[in-house]
TrEMBL record:
The lineage of its organism: Bacteria, Bacillati, Actinomycetota, Actinomycetes, Kitasatosporales. Keywords: Membrane, Signal, Transmembrane, Transmembrane helix. It comes from the Bacteria. The chain crosses the membrane at residues 379-397. This is Secreted protein. Residues 1-24 form the signal peptide. Residues 21-42, 350-371 are annotated as: Disordered. Residues 351-361 have a biased composition (Low complexity). SUPFAM superfamilies: Terpenoid cyclases/Protein prenyltransferases.
Length: 406
């Protein structure tokens, strides 16, 4: 869920010429003045518009708040005729074409949100149909259709299938289910990173432990999505790593690895070069949801308590997807997101949504700043993206090794 994962890093990856296809629509990136009024957040939605909108709607639903109809309508209007979703389409009335870069993560997140809200069966059925059509032969999914399977994408799709009433284990290609793909992406119980999930295999076929992928993998292996109901797990802390032959054992191994990676205070550390001693708020929130999904209430509560004391400023800086992620962590532990260390997360998230008449947004302020042609805003925006990637922002991208192999 990292904020799964905000896809601002995908923009940075695209700029840096990474191998992964950029998850961008062919439409030009909107200026701040052109941002849709129904969209959550005031930053460029080209790479994460549908993702952050979906998390915002899902989080409000989890908190018992009804999202604005305009916000829901904007999300459903982003769907292409084949059922897929791109991160952002500036003109939803224009048909999607071969240049429209749709992806599995945006599509699966939209399914999870709309299924939770209810009343959008036609949209979710088409989206699930598209997801099934791009399943890889190993049973998993990559970020883009045809890309090599990765733990994060496979897991968020599992969550979408479950939310839509499907049985993920019965969704197969060439006899392989998504659980088969996840089992193939978990590290063995010997050596460094025992029991963790890798994002994708390295070029030599080896697997490297990845905390973001591990939190996602635990949820996926349990057949759960981003919305985890409290008290639904087995109530037992993960034990030592045992060779996994079932998805449930793989989830237990992954949870045990995450427990071992936590600091004494209960949070994960960033792995970005230069930031190793900095807390990773997004991945810690992911871990809370993963622990809660298994029923490891003691560990989930400890890590959530740390977030409650330390993560409010991070969410304020990171935007609606971060608020949503913390709300979902609160929901998974049975905590009150309206009293998050004195911060009302739901109120803050709603304030980032459809603007009230006359409301001044950060987008408006940025537009004013950009009137000065000598402004270095463009350079510092890119630097900011990289910094955000370094501190970890949720289920989609925090500390994820972003490389899709052909």
């Amino acid at each position: 869920m990292n904020v799964r994962r905000s896809a601002a890093v995908l923009a940075a990856v695209a700029v840096l010429g990474a191998a992964a296809p950029a998850a961008a629509d062919s439409s030009p990136s909107p200026t701040p003045q052109e941002l849709p009024s129904a969209l959550y957040g005031d930053t460029d939605p080209q790479y994460d518009g549908v993702w952050r909108q979906s998390l915002a709607l899902l989080a409000q639903h989890a908190a018992g708040a009804e999202p604005p109809k305009a916000a829901v309508g904007w999300l459903t209007g982003q769907q292409c005729a084949d059922g897929s979703f791109a991160p952002f389409r500036a003109d939803p009335s224009a048909a999607c074409d071969a240049k429209t870069m749709v992806d599995t993560n945006q599509t699966a997140a939209a399914v999870q949100a709309l299924a939770a809200l209810g009343g959008h069966d036609a949209v979710t059925e088409k989206a699930v149909g598209w997801l099934k059509s791009v399943q890889n032969k190993d049973g998993g999914w990559g970020y883009a259709a045809g890309g090599a399977s990765d733990t994060n994408s496979t897991s968020v799709v599992i969550g979408a299938l479950a939310a839509a009433g499907e049985k993920p284990g019965e969704v197969k290609n060439s006899g392989k289910s998504p659980y088969d793909a996840l089992l193939g992406l978990e590290l063995p119980c010997t050596g460094e990173g025992a029991g963790a999930f890798a994002f994708q295999p390295e070029k030599d076929g080896s697997l490297a432990a990845n905390a973001d992928a591990t939190a996602a993998g635990v949820l996926g292996a349990l057949g759960k999505g981003l919305l985890v109901e409290p008290g639904k797990g087995d109530g037992e802390a993960a034990g030592s790593c045992v060779k996994a032959t079932t998805p449930e054992q793989a989830a237990a191994n992954g949870a045990a690895h995450l427990s071992g990676e936590l600091t004494a205070e209960g949070h994960l550390l960033a792995v970005t070069p230069g930031g190793e001693e900095q807390p990773d708020f997004g991945n810690t929130a992911d871990a809370v949801i993963a622990f809660a999904a298994r029923g490891d209430a003691a560990q989930a509560d400890k890590s959530y308590a740390w977030l409650e004391k330390n993560a409010a400023d991070w969410a304020a800086q990171s935007g609606p997807a971060a608020y949503a992620q913390l709300i979902l962590a609160a929901h998974a532990t049975g905590a009150d997101p309206r009293d998050f260390g004195g911060t009302d997360l739901v109120k803050q998230l709603q304030a980032a949504g459809p603007a009230a008449p006359g409301k001044t947004t950060k987008a408006t302020e940025k537009a004013e700043d950009e009137k000065d042609e000598s402004s270095p805003f463009g350079v510092w925006w890119f630097v900011g993206v990289c910094l955000v990637a370094g501190i970890g922002i949720g289920f989609l991208i925090s500390n994820r090794t972003k490389r899709q192999q052909p």
